[in-house]
Write a structure and sequence with these properties.
The chain has 306 residues and is an alpha+beta fold. The chain has three domains: 1-34, no CATH class; 46-187, no CATH class; 215-302, no CATH class. The protein is 43% helix and 29% strand. The protein has helices spanning 14-20, 36-77, 139-211, 289-299, and strands spanning 2-5, 21-26, 29-34, 86-90, 93-99, 106-115, 126-130, 215-216, 231-234, 237-239, 242-250, 256-269, 274-288. The strands form four sheets. The protein has a four-stranded antiparallel beta sheet with strand order 4-5-6-7. A four-stranded antiparallel beta sheet has the order 8-11-12-13. Strands 1-2-3 form a three-stranded antiparallel beta sheet.
């Protein structure tokens, strides 16, 4: 005997629950067999865990590289800094900052950019400076100019040494960082492939249920039926407030289908002499499958699991 085991899962629909596990009875023994989605979802978890570990190693190497570059920056420029000046090193730059009265953050003084000749190059071949100009003659701005001059003099005097020390750090970490970057790229690619496989299976399963008992859409208790989805049955005909859908049959090409649509509508009740809300079911012929698939894609999370 073969039986489908239904597994409860939040925000899932009935066809996905049926896809999870198959129960086999053989020689009075019960055997559970994982289905395609279960296997792929487990693989996805493993891939994401692997990516998390690799990403941590990647970030750790990058942080260590920044620490080493900071040491280079302080070795050459610390002697010209005032007491509260700071040096911040990030990829490709060294930033100098200083607190200014009236500001709750340190103000930029100047930035040194380390440039490669070609974007793929690991090593840098030039140091470029960047700083703002002003007509302000305050003490802060005049002292800022002094620091800019001192840093500029160090760059002039030790240009090749600074570049050499900077590039040595880049070279020391390049192999390790490149390896982890490549691993992350490969894992991202595999994660995308597995995710796409799951989506294909979910789509196939959803269409299978749609052609069998059909599907229904959930409407939260605090929501009006006006929040139910709409389905385009033709280029100029849209059915609103859809609460149920079933495929009755497809054309030979599989590009169109006859469907049964249940929607929520208002009808006049002669006895009550008022409009009442009820479900109305109609059949529509030769509806484009791409319209149906798009409708399912946009509203898959709202499919009832009952």
């Amino acid at each position: 005997m073969i039986k489908l085991l239904t597994i409860e899962k939040n925000n899932s629909n009935k066809l996905l629950e049926k896809e999870k596990v198959l129960i086999f009875r053989y020689n009075n023994k019960t055997i559970k067999v994982m289905t395609r989605i279960t296997i792929l979802e487990q693989k996805l978890v493993e891939l994401r865990e692997s990516k998390s570990k690799v990403s941590k190693a990647y970030n750790s190497f990058k942080e260590s590289r920044i620490d080493q570059l900071s040491r280079v920056a302080h070795e050459y420029f610390e002697e010209v800094l005032e007491k509260e000046d700071t040096i911040k090193v990030s990829d490709g730059r060294i930033e100098f900052a200083r607190p200014q009265e009236g500001y709750n953050y340190s103000k930029d003084i100047l930035t040194l950019y380390f440039k490669q000749e070609y974007w793929r190059d690991v090593k840098c071949n030039a140091i470029e400076t960047s700083f703002y100009s002003t007509t302000d003659n305050s003490e802060f701005e005049l002292k800022r100019m002094i620091l800019i001059g001192k840093v500029g003099q160090i760059v002039l005097d030790f240009y090749d040494d600074i570049l050499g020390a900077y590039n040595k750090v880049l070279s020391d970490f390049e192999d390790r960082i490149s390896e982890k970057r490549k691993q992350i790229y490969d894992l991202d690619k595999e994660i995308t492939e597995v995710s796409n496989q799951i989506k294909v299976i979910e789509k196939e399963n959803l269409l299978t249920v749609l052609e069998d008992e059909g599907i229904e859409f959930e409407l939260p208790e605090d929501k009006s039926y006006h929040n139910l989805p709409s389905l385009d049955v033709a280029f100029d005909h849209q059915i609103r407030y859809v609460i149920g859908l079933r495929i009755l049959g497809k054309t030979k090409s599989g590009k169109s289908a006859d469907i049964e649509v249940t929607r929520v509508g208002n009808t006049w009740d002669n006895k009550k002499e008022e409009y009442v809300t009820n479900n109305v079911t109609n059949i529509y012929e030769k509806v484009r499958m791409k319209n149906i698939e798009r409708f399912l894609q946009y509203n898959s999370e709202r499919i009832s699991a009952s």
